[in-house]
Amino acid sequence: MLPYRRSAAFVGLAACLLISVTSCANSPTGKALEQSLAADPRLQENPATFTPPPAQSSRPDEAVSELPADFPSEIPLYPDAELQEVKPLLDAAGNPDEQGQVTRWTTSDSSTLVQNFYRKQFQENKWQLASQPTDDQKGSFETSLDNLQVKVFVEPAGQKLTAGANLVIKYRRDGGETAQPKPDKSPTAIVGGSTSSTTASPSPTPTEPAKSGSFTDLNKAPAELRQSVEDLAALGVLTPENAAVKTKESAAGDKFEPNKIITRREYARWLVAANNQIHSNQSARKIRLGLETAEPAFSDVSRKDPDFAVIQGLAEAGIIPSSLSGDGTDVSFRPDAPLTREQLLLWKVPLDTRRSLPTASTEAVQQTWGFQDAAKIDPKALRAVQADFQNGELSNIRRSFGYTTLLQPSKPVTRAEAGAALWYFGFQGEGLSAKDLLQTKRQSN
After folding, report:
1. Residue 240: which H helix or E strand, with range?
2. 82-195 is classed in which CATH architecture?
3. Distance between CA atoms of residues 441 and 437, nearest Å
4. Across the chain, which distance is largest between two alpha carbons, in Å?
5. pLDDT per position as a tens digit, 363-409
6. Nearest alpha carbon to residue 250 among 58, 112, 63
7. What φ, ψ does residue 362 adopt, rounded to 5°?
8. What percent of the chain stands above pLDDT 90?
9. Suppose 360 and one of 208, 296, 382, 428 were both cysteines; which one would form an S-S bond, judging by CB atoms 3.0 to 4.6 Å apart?
């Protein structure tokens, strides 16, 4: 009963107070009491608004703008690049791959400067380049160092060359080894000009090279060679004519010119790219690119030549005859001269057989191939021609030139014929084609 008594007493006291205020409303005491209970006029003029703090939403699958602490220190970062976002690398099933990440960057520098930076860094630090851009503004580096697989894609940020560049760095470390943290001296993750660790709005994703859709005239290739050319184009091996000297436009939408003559430099470029792509999972079969610090193997291919790395690499591997292989007569490479049929075979067949070429003679070539002009074949190329015969229907001669009783060894090779030769690498049934690689990639995706 005690709570009830207290409530009753409180009600009674309040009633008395109300009666007192009412009764003395016009008295000085009543007015003072009324004013003391009135609302603060400052609050009436400027009422305070109480709003709940905004809800802070954060989705775990959103991209963030902070470089991961375990970002591999081996990966070079462009000095003036600003990090835009970091996303998990997805596996073939579309699930996050714990061994890799995708980072996206922007810079005010041109894509050409960015490409030159990565080309130099990868070469000087002995990365194993599987492929590199053949257009000086847009393209991908695919490379590896020990168990670290890296792909760097660079493209202009706009149509103007001064618009800057976008780049994507994808990496994956095989074998579960923990990546070493990137030192503090690496570029700061910046979004909108200020450092931040909050969620950033995703920047536009740079578009991968169109590859098979890059060329508008593949239908002009001879029907027998068209599929081979299309497969290589889909792999990004082939380049537009004179791609090395292009400065104002990317390869997208260019003409391949399948029936034009290919130069020696172009074929060297394709040869390395095709071999390294097809053997992308076999490091021992890849051709190492020449370092820019190497002594040039040819007097007419300086370190500043856009194709120095591939030409020097082929010479150092002994694929192209040079002074390095003891051939004192080959001091010049003649990069812009037409590629001949016998040169195509001399460079390509050793990458098919992966063994010493057999001895050969004019008579032996006449007996096996039936070539009426066997006597016109350069003695250095005879062994390659003879070894190619042992590859049966997959021989380079049959795939590129069809059935013929005339090799015409000094005849210039067309771009489509060169592509057909590079479509397959192997010997006597043991090999891989561009078609095989495309099927593997599609299954993994």
Report:
1. none
2. 2-Layer Sandwich (3.30)
3. 6
4. 138
5. 999 999 999 999 999 999 999 999 999 999 999 999 999 999 999 99
6. 112
7. -60, -40
8. 45
9. 382
